[in-house]
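in:
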């Protein structure tokens, strides 16, 4: 337990550190090119920033070396080498400002962090895609603006900051293909630069149009899937001339299932999980029933787990007959939400069963046809346990067998309306 907690706090601290490194790398990605182009005028106190980057990047290398689980395989060591290169203040040592570009290699760690978020924060997958795209685009635009400033320089009579803002504006208007400027490229390198920029702009534009629409449409895939399914179903029902009343009931059913998020089939959605996780998830999903069925309060954990794994959710609508008297018993039910009515031979109500009650056990215990008809009075969420599983559990857990037999005995004795 303590081990697990220690592991957890280590992971949190490590997460914070990675974010700090990513922020520093971004900082470097913005400052270094600006400093190369504009020197101290554009980035005052650059020396201090550079010292800070050296310190934090070196600390990062040391931390990574001390936690070898973070350096896996050849790729891990290569990345560590890259970390080391980006930590060395090459420009200050050699006196060549362009060497500071080695700092940008640290952006690899940003890419690594972003992609690990992608896989661990799947619930925000689409939003994150948008944010990552915005992040890289912003950095590229800054670099391009620095590049243009280096080529063109600030116009006479303006300071470097204004020059940078002009370049940024020029890059943005060229990228967005607006051409909203009279700043035409003049020299050959400028023309080549502008042409490359335009191609980059068109590609980005295409990416944005294609992806943003797709991302927005997929923000809630479950909802999109639901509406698509409903559309198909509606047109099918119209085409086959299904009566309006029946159509309404089909739609009501789907709306109910959707509202309670049962739209997903639990069994298939969870099928890939390893057994231990599957048990925990099943127990959580079925906690409503497990907490409300009185018998489970005294049952062993093992039995509860086993039943939780074998119960399958089913939904019934108001007035639906779940089974009729005289039918063969194939399963028993636990009520998770809603209520059902037990009807005797003459259609007289014998009992109303609610959340936490069970029914359908008598035919299985006595090995006889159903002793009564059971009908849903409103929307009902039930959990179904099939006969084979029921028999299996009954034979292995005497406490469960005793409880079910006692219930059967009690119900056989009672012929009045009872609310159990
Ligand atoms: P089964 O005989 O399989 O099908 C009808 C179900 O109605 C039966 O199992 C019991 O679960 C339930 N049932 C029958 N009689 C009563 C009663 N008097 N009170 C409550 N539930 C009953």
């Amino acid at each position: 337990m303590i081990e697990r907690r220690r592991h957890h706090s280590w992971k949190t601290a490590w997460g914070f550190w990675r974010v700090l490194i990513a922020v520093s790398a971004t900082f470097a990605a913005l400052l270094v090119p600006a400093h190369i182009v504009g020197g101290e005028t554009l980035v005052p106190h650059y020396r201090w920033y550079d010292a800070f980057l050296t310190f934090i990047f070196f600390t990062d290398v040391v931390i990574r070396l001390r936690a070898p689980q973070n350096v896996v395989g050849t790729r891990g060591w290569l990345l560590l080498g890259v970390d080391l290169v980006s930590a060395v203040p090459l420009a200050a040592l050699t006196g060549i400002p362009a060497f500071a570009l080695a700092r940008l290699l640290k952006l690899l760690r940003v890419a690594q962090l972003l992609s690990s978020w992608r896989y661990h924060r799947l619930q925000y997958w689409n939003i994150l895609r948008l944010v990552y795209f915005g992040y890289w685009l912003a950095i590229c635009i800054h670099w391009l603006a620095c590049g243009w400033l280096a080529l063109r320089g600030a116009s006479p009579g303006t300071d470097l900051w204004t020059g940078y803002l002009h370049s940024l504006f020029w890059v943005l208007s060229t990228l967005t293909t607006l051409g909203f400027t009279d700043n035409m490229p003049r020299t050959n390198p400028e023309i080549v630069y502008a042409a490359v920029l335009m191609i980059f702009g068109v590609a980005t534009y295409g990416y944005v149009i294609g992806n943003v629409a797709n991302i927005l449409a997929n923000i809630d895939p479950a909802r999109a899937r639901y509406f698509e399914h409903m559309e198909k179903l509606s047109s099918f029902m119209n085409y086959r001339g299904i009566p309006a009343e029946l159509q309404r009931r089909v739609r009501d059913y789907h709306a109910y299932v959707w509202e309670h998020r049962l739209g997903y089939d639990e069994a298939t959605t969870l099928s890939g999980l390893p057994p231990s996780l599957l048990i925990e998830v099943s127990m959580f999903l079925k906690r409503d029933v497990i907490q409300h069925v009185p018998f489970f309060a005294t049952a062993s954990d093992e039995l509860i787990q086993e039943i939780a794994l074998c119960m399958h959710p089913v939904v019934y609508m108001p007035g639906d007959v779940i089974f009729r008297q005289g039918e063969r018993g194939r399963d028993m039910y636990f009520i998770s939400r809603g209520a059902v009515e037990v009807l005797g031979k003459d259609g007289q109500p014998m009992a109303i069963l609610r959340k936490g009650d069970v029914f359908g056990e008598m035919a299985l215990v006595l090995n006889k046809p159903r002793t009564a008809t059971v009908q849903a009075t409103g929307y009902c969420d039930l959990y179904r346990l099939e006969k084979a599983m029921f028999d299996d559990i009954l034979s292995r857990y005497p406490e469960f067998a005793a409880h079910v037999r006692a219930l059967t005995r009690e119900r056989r004795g009672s012929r009045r309306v009872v609310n159990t």
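note: The longest helix spans residues 2-42.
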